[in-house]
Specification:
By secondary structure, the protein is an alpha/beta fold. The chain has three domains: 136 residues, Rossmann fold, CATH 3.40.50; 188 residues, ANL, N-terminal domain (Rossmann fold), CATH 3.40.50; 98 residues, GMP Synthetase, Chain A, domain 3, CATH 3.30.300. It is built from 16 helices and 25 strands. The strands form six sheets. The protein has a nine-stranded mixed β-sheet with strand order 2-1-10-9-11-12-13-14-15. Strands 4-3-5-6 form a four-stranded parallel β-sheet, sandwiched between helices. A four-stranded antiparallel β-sheet has the order 16-17-19-20, with no helix packed on it. It is globular, with a radius of gyration of 23 Å. The chain starts with a helix and ends in a 9-residue tail after the last helix. The structure holds malonyl-coenzyme A (MLC) and adenosine monophosphate (AMP). The site of malonyl-coenzyme A has 23 residues, from α8 and β13.
Length: 507
């Protein structure tokens, strides 16, 4: 019986005393001890009646136990569904019910608020806190420490990750065992990760970057991670001397550069810094090299495909580009309307094909057909150019998307929220450059005739309904929105007038 993802990522480490997680309190969890926890969690899930193919939705803080729950799901053939800890109950309600989750694991402190959500979706509610305690851990504690891996096919689902959409409704990207395994293999090879590596891990583990790129790569390579609950500048500076490598969103790197203690001496021993999830400014790349002597390696990916391209480990890490397609991955630049391939050097929409490309959107066959062509090409929605020497540059977005500190925000979702507020006739949401987050949200509102918009009330409602990173950080009030002759809102015009740079102190 085989379970390809478990067999490659986890099974080789069973019973080993090699270090896996270096924790904030100075302790270290070995691979073997971690996998024992995972086995007990897998038994706990079975005891709850969860079987292969079922979804387990999790809205929990980052912890070794949270990662053990991921390992348990993979071993038991259960589909892991991690959710951003910033989501509000209103947002979570949709994910838990749409995924038809069998179990919903939340923080103990939010159990009361989550109970109605779980019950409406028919999911069992369990708890697991950032300190590793909760009803799930209690149940796992009395379980056997061995669990036989459940057989899976490469095409079976391993995870469901929700990404927002241009229509405002989030779509669950179905990722298979083969999607995740092929990508981890390609990245270990390209980035030369080995069991000697210690990765500084300060990313959240509810997205592709922190979970599949960082964690799967380190599991496959057999190395260790300095596993921090979040990106805290002081802790990162203190722990960098023990690391060989780090992965981060551009905000991590700009925050480090803003601190004079981050210098050549601190990171001279490091092997590799990798950036992704949002564009790294060429200027940041240059500053980083001037300060540290390291050239950041930028790569490009997305939830639906995991990683697609990467700058070379050896060779020219070219600022402002995302490098070449990974082994086994094909890219082409196409006309947005006809999907026909454009000549080399022209700008168009990037299409991607390979074993990394997801299986489709959960219970959304039409959306899947729109974005995943019958011959396997996935339409990324990113505008790009490929040079004659094969370097890919992401030049913009064909999709209406804001990326703030590495989190995606789809304006449509925020506009639907704003349009529903008292006194608001209509709205348009745009991104504006932000010194810390790269981009941040600006809302342009049009009042209903004779109405006065109560911004304080809208901000209060936003706190209730929208994850913090999605909340507009600036508001503009206009009499009408600029539209073209077809009636389409002219966001370029709004960006030109209202998309001014956020001041450094704004957040
Ligand atoms: C937090 N806040 C943000 C924010 N993160 N606002 C805008 N954009 C963000 N990204 C807000 C909170 O709502 C809160 O607001 C305030 O900032 C403080 O919250 P915090 O949690 O203490 O913030 P901080 O620790 O500073 O977090 C910033 C960050 C974090 C950049 C370290 O957002 C982060 O780790 N981002 C990584 C995202 C990521 O992993 N993306 C990968 C996606 S996968 P208030 O008002 O309540 O005080 C993907 C595929 C690929 O894209 O290619 O990798
Ligand atoms: P997500 O849906 O969260 O997976 O975000 C994926 C999107 O992030 C991609 O479609 C790109 O628009 C963007 N992205 C990821 N990495 C990069 C990068 N290195 N440069 C530019 N954009 C990136």
């Amino acid at each position: 019986m085989t379970n390809p993802l478990y067999d490659a990522l986890f099974a080789p480490h069973e019973g080993k005393t090699t270090p896996f997680l270096h924790l904030p309190d100075g302790s270290t969890l070995s691979h073997g001890a971690f996998l024992q926890q995972a086995n007990q969690m897998a038994h706990a899930l079975s005891a709850l009646g969860v079987t292969a193919g079922d979804r387990v939705a999790v809205h929990i803080e980052k912890s070794p136990q949270a990662l053990a729950l991921y390992a348990a799901c993979i071993k038991a053939g259960i589909v892991f569904l991690p959710l951003n800890t910033a989501y509000t109950p209103k947002e979570l309600d949709y994910f838990v019910s749409d995924s038809q989750a069998a179990v919903f694991v939340c923080d103990p402190g939010e159990a009361d608020a989550m109970a109605p959500i779980a019950s409406a979706a028919g999911a069992k509610l369990m708890t697991l806190g950032g300190d590793g305690r909760g009803r799930l851990t209690d149940l796992a504690a009395s379980q056997p420490t061995h669990f036989a891996a459940v057989a899976r096919e490469p095409d079976d689902l391993a995870a469901l990750l929700y990404t927002s959409g241009t229509t405002g409704r989030s779509k669950g990207a179905m990722l298979t065992q083969e999607n995740l395994l092929s990508n981890a293999r390609a990245l270990v090879e390209c980035w030369h990760f080995t069991a000697k590596d210690v990765l500084l891990h300060a990313l959240p583990i509810f997205h592709s970057h922190g979970l599949f790129v960082a964690t799967n790569v380190m599991l496959l390579a057999g190395g260790a991670m300095i596993f921090l609950p979040k990106f805290d500048l002081e802790t990162v500076l203190a722990r960098l001397p023990q690391a060989t490598s780090m992965m981060g969103v551009p905000t991590f790197y700009t925050r480090l550069l803003d601190d004079a203690r981050f210098d050549r001496d601190l990171v001279g021993h490091m092997r590799l810094f990798i950036s992704g999830s949002a564009p790294l400014l060429a200027e940041t790349h240059r500053q980083f090299e001037a300060r540290t002597g390291h050239r950041i390696l930028e790569r490009y990916g997305m939830t639906e495909t995991s990683m697609n391209t990467s700058n070379p480990y050896e060779g020219d890490r070219r600022a402002g580009t995302v490098g070449h397609p990974l082994p086994g991955v094909e890219v082409r630049v196409c006309d947005p309307a006809t999907h026909s391939e454009l000549p080399v050097g022209e700008i168009g929409v990037l299409h991607v094909r390979g074993p990394n490309v997801f299986k489709g959107y959960w219970r959304m066959p039409e959306k899947t057909r729109e974005e995943l062509l019958p011959d396997g090409w996935f339409i990324t929605g990113d505008l790009s150019r490929v040079d004659t020497d094969g370097y890919v540059t992401i030049v913009g977005r064909g999709k209406d998307l804001i990326i703030s500190g590495g989190y995606n925000i789809y304006p449509k979702e925020i506009e639907l929220f704003l349009d529903a507020q008292p006194g608001v006739k209509e709205s348009a949401v745009i991104g504006a450059p932000h010194p810390d987050f790269g981009e941040s949200v600006v809302a342009v509102l049009v009042p209903e005739s004779g109405a006065k918009i109560d911004l304080a009330a809208i901000e209060a409602a936003a706190r209730n309904e929208l994850a913090g990173f999605k909340r507009p950080r600036r508001f503009e009030i206009l009499d009408v929105l600029p539209r073209n002759t077809m009636g389409k809102v002219q966001k370029n015009e709004l960006r030109a007038t209202y998309g001014t740079v956020f001041q450094p102190k704004a957040s």
